[in-house]
Structure to design on (343 residues):
């Protein structure tokens, strides 16, 4: 079947992404616009058949490397291609290579996602990368069931805390644009308390504007006596939903507002038709190691694993990150910088 490189219009691209078996929010045009506002340059490369139907594609994000040693190209949860179809893979990667070289990229980093363990990325011209951008391991909940079944899969403590949030009069609402400021304040408090980085306030404001009015995200807040105690920002596309951002106050912790808003986020995802709910990010350790160590460790993502493990999902790992090198000296310099920053 002849394939033709095209530059798809935004509506056609988003329709293709949403219909793809490995659809992911980070490949949508709106995500590209979010990243554009914060230093990335999005560009889409796609293939169409003779009838003009999109059959494969990828949204690339370009950014300058640290210390201004060059440019990188990045594809989160892409490319969206049939990895078993050699013709399709070769044709798409040829277009990707042209786009990357035209921008002067030293290399392309892809994080293709889940369920691709049988793909030989080496044979496709990639090398495994020690540096990931997205967390490679996560917990995924099955939402293709009624609420009682979903609750029954949770551990007893999580169910009890959901009930406490109701008993202790936590009021749950879907936040308006004006509520993003309150969510930002909760994020700042959480980041300072738990020692993890958060984006600038404008990032969450832009995310709200790009996704909530389109029905692809919800800001859910839990409050008591007029004070917001916890919030989550949940996203949905096709069969999937993602819990990307969450925050809570140190005040009134006994009211378990974090459990109330998370349960509300899961219920919102179900109303959008999601069958899978990605808790998005746990330590990159096998399930046995996770269970053996979560009581002792609080560094990195260990602090959130205790919370996420109770919701009844399955620990899942992606195929990690893979690099396609265009400029070997710049790539070697990048690897050296990353190694030093990781020390």
């Amino acid at each position: 079947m002849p394939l033709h490189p095209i530059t798809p219009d935004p509506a056609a691209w988003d329709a293709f992404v949403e219909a793809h078996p490995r659809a992911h929010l980070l490949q949508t045009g709106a995500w590209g616009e979010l990243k554009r506002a914060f230093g990335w340059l999005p560009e889409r490369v796609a293939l169409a058949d003779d009838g003009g139907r999109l059959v494969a594609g990828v949204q690339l994000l370009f950014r300058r490397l640290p210390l201004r040693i060059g440019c990188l190209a990045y594809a989160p949860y892409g490319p969206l291609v049939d990895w078993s179809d050699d013709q399709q893979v070769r044709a798409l990667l040829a277009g990707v290579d042209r786009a990357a070289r035209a921008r002067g990229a030293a290399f392309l980093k892809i994080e293709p996602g889940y369920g691709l363990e049988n793909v030989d990325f080496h044979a496709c011209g990639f090398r495994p990368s020690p540096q990931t951008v997205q967390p490679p391991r996560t917990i995924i909940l099955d939402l293709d069931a009624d609420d009682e079944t979903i609750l029954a899969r949770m551990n007893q403590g999580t169910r009890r805390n959901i009930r406490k949030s109701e008993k202790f009069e936590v009021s749950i609402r879907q936040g308006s644009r004006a509520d993003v400021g309150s969510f930002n304040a909760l994020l700042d408090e959480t980041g300072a308390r738990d020692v993890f980085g958060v984006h600038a306030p404008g990032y969450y404001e832009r995310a709200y504007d790009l996704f909530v009015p389109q029905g692809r995200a919800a800001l859910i807040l839990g409050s008591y006596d007029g004070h917001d105690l916890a919030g989550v920002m949940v996203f949905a596309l096709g069969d999937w939903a993602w819990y990307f951002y969450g925050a809570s106050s140190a005040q009134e912790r006994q009211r378990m507002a974090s459990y109330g808003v998370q349960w509300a986020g899961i219920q919102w995802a179900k109303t959008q038709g999601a069958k899978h709910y990605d808790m998005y990010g746990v330590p990159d350790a096998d399930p046995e190691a996770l269970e053996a160590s979560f009581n002792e460790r609080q560094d990195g993502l260990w602090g959130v694993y205790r919370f996420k493990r109770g919701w009844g999902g399955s620990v899942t790992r992606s195929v990690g990150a893979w690099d396609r090198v265009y400029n070997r000296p710049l790539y070697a310099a990048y690897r050296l910088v990353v190694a030093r920053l990781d020390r």
Summary: Residues 137-317 form a domain with the Aminopeptidase fold (CATH 3.40.630.30). DSSP finds eleven helices and 14 strands in the chain. The radius of gyration is 21 Å.
